Amino acid sequence: MYQVNFFSDKHVSFLRDALHIFCKLLLMLTCLLVVVPAPSFAAAKTDAAPSRFTPPQDDRASVIIEVEGDAKQHREYLRNYFPNTEIIAVYDTLFNGLAIKTKPEKLAKIASLEFVKAIHPVATYQANFSATAGMTKTKKLKDMLKTDKNAVLPQTLNTTSYTGKGIKVGIIDTGIDYNHPDLRNNYQGGYDLVDLDDDPMETTPEQGAPTLHGTHVAGIIAADGDLKGVAPDASIYSYRALGPGGSGTSAQVIAALEQAVKDGMDVVNLSLGNTVNGPDYPTSIAVNKAYELGVFVVIANGNDGPGDWTVGSPATAVKSFSVGALANEQQIPVLAARHENLQIHMTPMLGSVPWELQRDYAITTDLSQTRGKIALLKRGKIPFYELAKQAEENGAVAVLIYNNEPGAFQGSIETDASESNPIAIPVASLTKKDGKKLTAFSEGTFPYLETKQMETPEGIAAFSSRGPVTVNWQIKPNVLAPGTNIVSTVPGGYEALQGTSMASPHVAGAVALIKEAHPNWSNDKIAAALETTAKPIDSDGQLLAANSQGMGEIQVQAAIHPETVIYNGALVFGKTDKDITRLTTAITIENTSNEKKTYDFAIPKMQTGLSWQLPNRVTIEPKQKKKLHIQANLLPRLLKKGLHQGWLELSDGEQDYHLPYLFINQTADSPKAAGFEFLLKPFSEEAYMYRFYLSEDAKKVQAILYDPDTLVYKKMLLDLEDVSQGMNEGKIDKKDVPAPGKYRLLFMVQTENGSLESDEIPVEIGS
Which residues are catalytic? Predict the structure, then answer.
């Protein structure tokens, strides 16, 4: 659900000029950029005690600045020359910067200092989740469980005798409602990296768009009340890096991770991310450093599936333990027409009653003629609650609101008004495409729809982001965990949400259990045990692709008591070219049992252009390890170019172990650029900043502005040559930027091999 400015790859002819490319894209493609606003949820009324922290009113701005050089020396400089600026924290472990509070008028002067690299007020990360179909917030857990048979409780994952006792779990998120009765005993503290104080409470309505995400994540990990988390005795700490609406910056996320490391967390969960698919993005680098310092970092893989290459930072970090979402077996409502081949999937809105219509109903787009019908309405400026309430008052039996831009969206009808005057009919959202389809259907001679309950099997959630990672081609996610219909704590009660944001804390809780059971195990061994014992997901007897499931669904009991642990079991062979025919990687097998074991590889199925050189039968004594080399022999000219993946099978005579493999033959359709941002330079009146990420070197990068309505060329914003892989940023003088307004930006990347890739991005230039 989170988004930053990004773009997917679309190939266009190198010989076409920029305008022709742009026009062709507009004619052939739907919008390539889906900007999803931060979810806005109404405040939940609560009977809990008020916040234990009551910070005084403060008119100073709280910001985190990124600096070059020695951050501690810069702290002293600011103390001497800006005496009214409060230095809240110095970051020098994972991130080089300072957290400060000062008067807004002082920020411009601080921003101009030579050692200040950047000030980070721009939202680039968001919590990633959506409401579960047909389930609404309730103050009583038992009421929720009575009404929905699809509900998944986090405690069902833990079939062990362990509870996470003595393990410290840090949650980098939107904060936690630490007054919730199911969390107050396990909550032990934390820090707010948004307001820079000791009160990491969820955002309240008085502070902006209220949040609930961090509280939900915390309950999955360690709720201990009416609801039980995976590790109900673990100690939880909150690091609020995402503020109103669930958004925050890279600097806040990295600073929160650094604070968690300094506070001695055993496990850290990050159910957040962006769309930059690269291993060396700043947040990914910080995750690797935290792991090296002994913290096990669990990260949601993202909700931008089901396409390949959709995993984003920081889940792309080499040392991150990234988690995809497993969809449980469930019954979901769909709309169908008896006399036509029409089936429409919908997303019930947050706060809606279940969609359980018992007979056929006509559908209408006329809001004044909705009595006894399903109202089909277009998303616009009117709030969802008001739109649905008007339809209900006009006699509608249900409401469908379709998007005004490509893609799905998750809406909410929870508002202050809904607390006292709730909507009693079901309300759901549709994609723009399905909305247009139903609009045409409503104009037919028999515009009636029936509600069917569709049974879906267990599998990988469609929204779960897929790998691999660009540049190093690593397989992500590492594993899967439950991620749909997950019931957990929220301010004022309980709610069911879905997303990889819900899958990740299941694994964080599982890691807490393993650390309690095996306090001397290294993080590498914990990760390997979870991967080795995971159950691969198949469809009709065929294992699903590794870049969608990693090693499979976690099995906590087996991971605590493994008889074999395989290190580096996800086999990444990298990228080949026409001259390289042999790729090698290695695994290490540890026999953790009390008896010697003999391991054999099954002979892989023959493939044209690919053969394997696998280790011979190997016997390993109890509690011993052996390193084995695996070689893939390739004839690239006989293999299709692009991404290749599959599975090898290893057996010890009693247990089979499935090892996913992946390699790239010559080239891949991976995104070459991502994360484009264009913004007024913080606290500057004279310049704009730009940032973008390249997954490989480029001969040329261009950004061209057009009028969004007439397609008239306006300005060449960027024209860069020989641009390096990784983060690229700079500034543009304000005099070289067109007048404030809305534009279409054509972003083009000419790669080293001469191909040209292009994407269209909506841009708004502010004053």
Answer: 173, 213, 501
